[in-house]
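Lay summary. Proteins are chains of building blocks that fold into shapes, and those shapes determine what they do. In this project we predict the shape from the chain. Here is one chain we studied, written as its sequence of building blocks.
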Amino acid sequence: MYVNTPCYSTVRVVESTVKSDHKAVVAYRDYVHVQPLNKRRHQRSFRLRTPAQHARFLEYASALNIDLDDSADAQTNFDTMYDVMLDLLDTFYPEREITVTSSDPPYVTPTVKALLRRKNRLMRAGRTDEAGSIAARIRTIITRSSTRWLRTVDTRKSAKKAWAKVREVIKGSTTRASDHKIDGLTAQSLNNHYATISTDKGYSAPRPKLTVSDGLSHVTEKTVFRMLDTVLSKVDDFATFKKVEVHAENSTF
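And here is the predicted shape, written in a compact code that computers can read:
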């Protein structure tokens, strides 16, 4: 990367989150990031699943023995089994919360958001190899999500609908922003706000400019000479010459 002045504080090279033969170069600089005014944040619960968690769960489950009472009814044994499964789920896959925004694409699920944040932390710490492996996982999740999203689209029947789906995946749905309306914000309220701040209470209309004189129009010798000089030198233009002559006689020099 070539720049005029050193402006980037941190530069990292990592595997791209999209399918590409090249790596991604991410440069950070110190600046204030201004969030959009209409962005809404929501807390979402999710359970992060990683290969390390799967390995620990399988190791524990291989030696797990669940004792059920043969004399108890089916509902009691079911409740016991269900409690054991919930306990295992909370132990190896604890429930977490993460913030998602209304501007996130539909394929950015809470799991993807958590992986993106972990990848960014690893990149800032200089652990690019681990960040690259997480980027590959994110790419796989996004690819599967987009595949499911476009599975019902038949390009041979309607190419227009297919491209609409592709644009929706890339840019997000145009109807998503309307689902998160700001309370009390209407077109009339915006109109009143800008009308208030754009109105000068001491405004007075300027006087109209006088572009022409209201006096009598006097014909001078110079005007007559110019009119005669522009007359075409043809016999057919004698009527025009007579009009100029009559106008000159009726004018006051």
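What the prediction tells us: Residues 128-149 form the longest helix (22 residues).
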